[in-house]
Amino acid sequence: MHPSPAKPILVVDDDPAMRLALSESLRQSGHPVVIASNGEEALGHCREQAIGLMMTDIRMPGMSGMDLFQEAKKLMPSLPIIIMSAFGTIQAAVEAMKSGAFDYLVKPFSQEALETVIQRALCSQEIPAAKPPPHPTAPAGRALLTQDPGMLRLLKTAEVVAAGQTSILIEGESGTGKELLARFIHEQSPRAHRPFIAINCAAVPEALLESELFGYEKGAFTGAAARKPGRFELAHTGTLLLDEVSEMHLSLQAKLLRVLQEREVDLLGGKGPISLDIRVIATTNRPLWEEVNAGRFREDLYYRLNVFPLRLPPLRHRVVDIPLLADHFIKKGSAKNQKSVLSVSPEALSHLMGREWRGNIREFANVIERAVLLCDRGVITPDHLLFEASSEAKAAPPPPRSTTVWEAERELILETLERVGGNRTHAARLLGISIRTLRNKLREYRTAGSTDPQQTAAPGRADEGGTL
């Protein structure tokens, strides 16, 4: 049963044939329609009457579809607007979605694709999605832990985007936590109480990936003894994670594009398509645009997935998070292995902060778990750290030159200050001492004639601020 809005759909296109065909198709589906041949005429309709939905071509003479979109949003901020785009202007349509457009359709589009996006837009107006009750940001042991300013901004952006329905592409090196970020987005969204279904496109053999994604009916082929729903069908009303989507074969990419465009899936051997209501999140550990340029990934699928891109930084760009992550994985490893490891020594922490971490957090977690197993006195020291053979230090600590504890302490403090850009608050937190103690130590080193990188800092406490 279709919604029957009293407010008409406004169709804006400078092509008379397209205007006529689209308006006639909408009227046959039971929707009231008004038409406009340009942006100025469309704005006139918006001022004269209540509009339930606008559909506008993006490329028009005079006022473009993007300009119309901006002006219409000023007049009617809650008006859902669907952008119609030819293949060559997909990127502009994606930019419109980032600015708040409801969705976009690539010409030529089918009647089914049109009706699907119309129903979604109208239903979003009739029944606003309710925010789910408070819930944890991640399952136990899978939390996104950070105090890095850049990561905190990224999570805030992800939380805002989660409230919408747009597709999201998460890029990042292997081991940076792309699946955790995808789960965070799902759990912050109105779909949090619905299924979260993930499939690793790199882990499933190519011959099986199609049936895993799309499913099949009983008897569809030899060995199909029972009906098997695909991941798309299982994710209905929820979120589907396409992990490492860049590994998908080109032939499957074409079928994936159709599902995303039509919002329906055909089971192998099925009698008809199954309608879908899903949010798609894709991840990749390779720059997807480079894959497009290399001819290994479809450009139209790239734009359909990359409506809102998020990039996770590697661990080497989040040095301030290493003490926090070390504490987390020490507790986790201790509980798992029934050990009583309490902390990591400043010297071991210095080694951890100096690594390149090519395997990122996944590699870091392995190193800490090994250290927990080897530790027998409650504190992890450098002797307990066994690194991967392929993991090189970005700035490996120099061989000890100090002959006294005082000199070793001084080198550790000055090295830590240099790593955090001279921020005493961060340095004190990493070293596990108070800012007062750090100031006293630096004063002591100046008196002794050692070099203090803080001498160039502004007087007073200006260098002690900063974010978490």
UniProtKB/TrEMBL annotation:
> Which GO MF terms are attached to this record?
ATP binding; sequence-specific DNA binding
Q: Where is this region: Disordered?
A: 445-468
Q: Which residues carry this modification: 4-aspartylphosphate?
A: D57
Q: Does the keyword Kinase apply?
A: no
What are the Sigma-54 factor interaction domain coordinates in residue numbering?
A: 144-373
| UniProt-listed PROSITE patterns | RESPONSE_REGULATORY, SIGMA54_INTERACT_1, SIGMA54_INTERACT_2, SIGMA54_INTERACT_4
- Alphabetical UniProt keywords: ATP-binding, DNA-binding, Nucleotide-binding, Phosphoprotein, Transcription, Transcription regulation, Two-component regulatory system
Keyword Transcription regulation attached:
yes
The residue ranges flagged as biased composition, category Polar residues, are 448-457
Q: Where is the Response regulatory domain?
A: 8-122
Question: Which SMART domains does the entry link to?
Answer: AAA, REC
Q: Which superkingdom is the protein from?
A: Bacteria
Residues spanning the signal sequence: none
UniProt GO BP: phosphorelay signal transduction system; regulation of DNA-templated transcription
Q: Could you tell me what this protein is called?
A: Sigma-54-dependent Fis family transcriptional regulator
What is the originating organism of this protein? Candidatus Manganitrophus noduliformans
